[in-house]
Amino acid sequence: IMEVAHGRPSAEIIRDIAPHLEVEAEVELLENREAEDLGGVVGILGAADLVRSLPPASWAVVTSGTLTVAGPRLEAVGIPEPPVLITAGDIVNGKPDPEGYLAAARRLGAPAEKCIVIEDSPAGLEAARAAGMKTIGVTTTFSAESLIPVDALVSSLEAVSLVRVDKGSGDRLPDLELCVEPSE
């Protein structure tokens, strides 16, 4: 189930693997459980520090989860409220469709090619590539092989830093370059 489920909206998954169930009722039940049960929720190493290091209003979270689930889970892992949050309720087509990432770029006022997506799922990375964005795959949930092709591959976000580069573009958002420490 993990191969077809992770990174995709719950309603799509339920339709695919259990079409005989009442999808909306099952989604509501699942969301309530996920929002209340935060005991096993663990953040990706370095994620909270990385987002705190970014300039305000320059980053987004794009999740296949709903707002009911995303808010409590982000808080549980120490991620501050994102300037832009795109959830399953904001889009029609879930990952691997690029709609969510393109919506985030629009709300940030950033061209897709200047965006860097950090993802732990094949569906999310496929969506980011389809949106024309740079990608960092994190091997916390899936193997490295299942995340390729990516621009960079890491086991945690402690290996990632974003460096501000002044290219004189005059954009509202700073130019950021991807810096990934080589893995040992």
Written overview of the protein:
- The structure is a single chain.
- The strands form three sheets. This protein has a three-stranded parallel β-sheet, covered by helices on one side.
- It has one domain (2-180): HAD superfamily/HAD-like (Rossmann fold).
- The relative contact order is 0.14.
- Helices cover 36% and strands 16% of the residues.
- The protein is globular.
- The chain starts with a helix and ends with a strand.
- Strand 1, helix 5 (67-76) and strand 2 form a beta-alpha-beta unit.
- It has 184 residues and is α/β, with parallel strands linked by helices.
- It has helices spanning 2-5, 10-17, 23-36, 47-53, 67-76, 99-108, 122-130, 144-147; strands at residues 60-62, 84-86, 116-119, 134-138, 152-154, 160-165, 175-180.
- Helix 2 packs across helix 3.
CATH class: Alpha Beta
Record field, number of beta strands: 7
Helix amount: 25-40%
User: Strand percentage, roughly?
Assistant: 15-25%
Number of domains: 1
- Radius of gyration from CA coordinates: 16 Å
How many helices? The count is 8
Q: Going across the major beta sheet, what is the strand order?
A: 3-4-5
Assigned CATH superfamily: HAD superfamily/HAD-like
Q: Low-confidence parts lasting 5 or more residues at pLDDT below 50?
A: none
Report on the biggest sheet: 3 strands, parallel
